[in-house]
Amino acid sequence: MKIIPVIDLKNGQVVQAIKGDRSNYKPVQSQLCSGSSPFDVVTALLEVTHSDTLYIADLDSIDNLKNNFQIIIELTQQNKSTSFWLDAGFTSSDQLKQWQEIPNIRPVLGSESHNEIDSLLDLLESDHILSLDFMNDQFCGPVEILGHHENWPDDVIIMSLNTVGNNSGPDLNLIRKIQLTGSNSQLYAAGGVRDQSDLDLLTKIEIKGALIASALHTNNIRF
């Protein structure tokens, strides 16, 4: 089971994501470090998990406000051996260009950022990551992509936004629904992971990895 720690960036700080209600996200309070500085939080998460991968959601960019790009660039420079999975609300190839020269960035294409399947399919490449975003069992984005699993890249995130940070456990029904598409992609669960027993269950149902934030900051998962 691959553990991928997560940070959500908003206004230059790491915030605590809860149930996808981004307007009410507050600066993270972590048992791993003091404060909500992205540099301190990333250092702590990588130290505790020994992970070679970290997921970044630039919420300002996803919500078409501003962005945290300078912080992200500095993070990649300070952690050159870490692969950063970055969701910044990418909807065009022009938005992706600035990241193509950064070797430890892998773009995440979030379905919620797209209204039409063509714009999403045009950007999908094998090295990109597709995030299938759901809120309360409703798909966020062009639902047709769920029927085009042959176009999915190697790595696909099953993102259950309403279970993020609410200590409810992974959405197993949603995960099973995506597994039944017959896709050959490696699947990663995001949202709701509470503890080692959840990770054991995800391993048992052959999920490749899990994206985790809250359970790490509360020390509910230890390594």
Blueprint of the fold:
Layout: E1 2-10, E2 13-16, E3 26-27, H1 38-49, E4 53-58, H2 59-62, H3 69-78, E5 83-87, H4 93-97, E6 105-110, H5 117-123, E7 129-135, E8 138-139, E9 155-160, H6 172-179, E10 186-190, H7 196-204, E11 209-212, H8 214-217
Parallel strand pairs: 1-4, 1-11, 4-5, 5-6, 6-7, 7-9, 9-10, 10-11
Antiparallel strand pairs: 1-2, 2-3, 7-8
Could you explain how this protein is built, in words?
The chain is an alpha/beta fold and 223 residues long. It has one domain (2-217): TIM Barrel (Alpha-Beta Barrel), CATH 3.20.20.70. The protein is 26% helix and 25% strand. It has helices spanning 38-49, 59-62, 69-78, 93-97, 117-123, 172-179, 196-204, 214-217; strands at 2-10, 13-16, 26-27, 53-58, 83-87, 105-110, 129-135, 138-139, 155-160, 186-190, 209-212. An 8-stranded parallel beta barrel has the order 1-4-5-6-7-9-10-11, surrounded by 4 helices. The longest helix has 12 residues, at 38-49. The radius of gyration is 16 Å and the shape is globular. The chain starts with a strand and ends in a 6-residue tail after the last helix.
